[in-house]
Amino acid sequence: MLYHLSDLLPFAPWSVFQYITFRSAGAAITSLLLSMWLGPGIIRWLRDLKFRQDYRPKDVKEGADATAAAADLAKRGTPTMGGILIVLVLDISVLLWARWNAFVLLTVLAIIVLAGLGFYDDWLKVTKQTAEGAKSHLKLYVQFALGLGVATYLWRLPSTATLINDIQVPFIKNPVLVGVPVVGVLLAILVICGASNAVNLTDGMDGLAIGCTLITTLVFLVMTYIAGNSVFAHYLLVPYVPGAGELTVICAAMLGACLGFLWFNCHPAEVFMGDTGSLALGGALGIMAVLIHQPFVLPIAGAVFVAEALSVMLQVGWFKYTRKRFGEGRRIFLMSPLHHHFRKKGLPESKIVVRFYIVAILCAVVALSTLKVR
C-alpha cells in the first residue's frame, strides 16, 4: 500500500518506499510493535473465550516422568490459538509495506489457508478438550491441494515455469534436472506440506517452534533478497527470480511477528500458537523456498524441523514393524517428537529449547554457506 502511495508522490521523503530494504525494515518493526500492542488483549480474549487445551494429568512417577507431569500440570489453562496474533500482524504488515505481485499473493494466500486449517483443528481440540483435532487425512488433503495449486499456477506461467520444470540443489550452480515438470510439481507439494507439518510437530515446548522459525526465516530473508536482485544473484550464481525480492518484506514481517509472539510464548508461556500459527508459518517457509527456486535449502536451514518430523516417522514406522514382526511394538526414542525424548531423559524444558536454538543457528549458517560454495 505504502509503495503504491509513493508512486503517486514521487519526491523525497516518499521515494524511500521504493527500496525493498527500507520497506522490509518497516514491515519488521510494524509487525513487532503490533504484536506487543495487540498481544495482551488477544491473550485476554482467548482466555475469556476459554480457548485453551487443558492438559490431562499424567500418572506421576519418579524421575523424569514426574518432572514432565508437573510441567504439564503447570500449563493447564494457558490459552492456545495464539497463531491468530501472528497471522493478523503478519498480514497487516505485508498489506502496508509490500509491493503486491503474484509471489506475495501466493504466499499470503497460503498463510491464510493454512491458518484457517489450523484454526479448525484447534477449534475441535478446545471444544472437545482432547488431543484429537481434525482428521490427519483432511489436513493432508488441504495441504496437498494448496501445494498442487501453487505448483500448477507457477508451471503454467511462462515467466515462472522454470521454477517447476528445473530442479535446483544447493552447492551446484546449474540445475541438476531440466524439463521435468512432474518431478517439480511433486517436489513443490512435498516441500510445502512437509514444512507445514514439520513446524507443527516442533510446537511442543515454550518458545521452541517460534524461535526456530525465527532463525530459519532469517536465512530466507537473505535468500529472497538475493534471488530478487539480478546483480547479487548473478554474482553468487544462484537463480535470479524477478519479483522474488518482495518476499523479503514478508520474511521481515514474519521476523517481527515471531519476535513479538516469542515475547509472550517464552517459558513460562502466556499463550501457545496452536496449529493456527504453526501450520501457517511452516507453509510460508515452504512456499517461499519454492518461489525462489531453492527447495532443498529449506531442509538445511530448517534441519531442526526435519529432525522432529523424522523422529515421528521413524518412531511410528519402527513400532508398527516390530509389532508385526515380534508381536510387541518397540520404540527408538523414549517419546516423539524428538524434543519429548530429551524431556523424558530428564533435561529441563528451557535447556532443551536453548540447545535446539543453537543447532538451528548452526544449520542456518550452513544454509547461508550454500550461496558461496558452488
Question: What layout of secondary structure does this protein have?
Answer:
Elements: H1 2-8, H2 20-48, H3 64-74, H4 83-97, H5 102-128, H6 136-156, H7 162-165, H8 181-202, H9 208-227, H10 230-236, H11 247-265, H12 274-291, H13 297-301, H14 303-326, H15 338-344, H16 349-369
Textual characterization of the structure:
The protein is mainly alpha-helical and 374 residues long. The protein has one domain. It contains 16 helices and no strands. Helix 8 packs across helix 14, helix 9 packs antiparallel against helix 11 and helix 9 runs parallel beside helix 12. About 2% of the residues have low confidence.
How many β-strand stretches? 0
- Name the average pLDDT: 90
Secondary-structure-based class equals: mainly alpha
Radius of gyration of CA atoms, rounded to a whole number: 21 Å
- Main sheet record: none
End-to-end gap: 38 Å
Taken together, the total number of domains comes to: 1
The number of helical runs is 16
Helix content range: 55-70%
Proportion of strand residues: under 5%
Order of helices and strands: HHHHHHHHHHHHHHHH
Shape: globular
